[in-house]
Design goal:
Blueprint lengths: L3 E7 L6 H9 L6 E7 L6 H11 L3 E5 L5 H10 L5 E4 L5 E2 L3 H11 L3 E11 L8 E2 L9 H6 L9 E4 H7 L10 H9 L4 E13 L9 H17 L6 H21 L6 H12 L1 H4 L3 H14 L4 H8 L2
Parallel strand pairs: 1-2, 1-4, 2-3, 6-9
Antiparallel strand pairs: 4-8, 5-9, 6-7, 6-8
Helix pairs in contact: 7-8, 8-9, 9-10, 9-12, 9-13, 10-12, 12-13
């Protein structure tokens, strides 16, 4: 029984999978297994997984049904033997101390259902970070999860297997915000514990699933339903503020992805209409987002991206 079962959903990931697997092999903690799921690829992904499986007996290649990352992760988790499930997408990368830090946090916090670290965002080279996620200094609750995704990506989640099973795993019908939706359902089973270190590196792709911002907003609405299912029922005012915060995030994401000139401004305007107080909380981030969205409407994309990262 390994300490960690690393679950890697893969779909047409031949270009990025070798770097992802290398970050697993570079882990300072070696007590792990990998369950890599080829979820309907038509490139060289299956060959790369077969080669990795032949090279390292800790790696098992599985075949998914092409039903998306949530279903692929659940398939891997169902065959996992580890005490904790560490999720890693096939285009993201870990720092060498990712699993060691998770083990230390679980040892220090026996009440933890999941742990997450800080995230660095990159375009093509994980050594060239374009932005970093916020530092969380306390365990997030349901209200926090509706305002922001503290983990930023499923690749940053390490979950106690018992808590994952008690929560029911990932919702397989969601392609967006499925990580936040899961975290909400994990709350009755333990704490979500932040780590201060930068341990996960997320590849921001203009053509990836996370570039479909309207569907990301629809995913957020499913998170509201999940929050209600665990008894968290925010007031109408608090919910509008959370919606404004999410729309501000989508505005910033539109800037980073260099989407159309009016895309970022559209999300910012919707956020301001929902709740000016929510949009400008914190004030600096709201002001920088609005300024960048306005400039993006008339200026080159690089100006908006630079301001969004302030």
């Amino acid at each position: 029984m390994p300490a960690f079962s690393i679950v890697i959903p893969c779909r047409n990931a031949a270009a990025t999978l070798p770097r992802t697997l290398r970050s697993v092999w570079e882990q300072t903690c070696t007590d792990w297994e990998v369950l890599a799921i080829d979820d309907g690829s038509d490139d060289a992904t299956s060959r790369l997984l077969a080669e990795a499986e032949a090279l390292d007996p800790r790696i098992r290649a599985l075949t998914g049904a092409g039903r998306g990352p949530g279903a692929a992760r659940n398939l891997g988790a169902a065959q996992a033997r580890g005490l904790a499930l560490a999720f890693l997408d096939a285009d993201d990368v870990w720092a060498p101390g990712r699993l060691t830090a998770a083990a230390e946090t679980f040892a220090a916090r026996p009440d933890a259902a999941a742990v997450f670290a800080r995230v660095g965002f990159f375009a093509t080279d994980p050594g060239r970070i374009e932005a970093r996620s916020a530092l969380w200094r306390r365990d997030p609750g349901a209200a926090d999860l509706l305002r922001a995704n503290p983990a930023c990506t499923a690749s940053n989640l390490v979950v106690a297997r018992a808590a994952f099973e008690a929560a029911g795993g990932f919702r397989e019908d969601l392609r967006h915000a499925e990580d936040v939706e899961l975290m909400l359902r994990l709350l009755p089973h333990g704490a979500l514990v932040p780590q201060a270190e930068l341990l996960t590196f997320y590849r921001a792709s203009a053509g990836g699933l996370s570039s479909d911002l309207e569907r990301m907003m629809a995913g957020w609405r499913e998170c509201v339903r999940a929050a209600r299912s665990i008894g968290h029922r925010p007031s109408a005012r608090a919910l509008r503020a959370a919606e404004a915060s999410q729309l501000r995030y989508l505005s910033r994401r539109a800037l980073r992805l260099s989407q159309g000139r009016g895309a970022a401004l559209g999300f910012a305007w919707r956020g301001l209409r929902a709740s000016p107080a929510g949009f400008f909380s914190p004030p600096r981030q709201g002001a920088a987002t609005l300024a960048a969205a306005l400039l993006r409407a008339v200026a080159p994309a690089r100006v908006g991206r630079a301001l969004a990262d302030l």
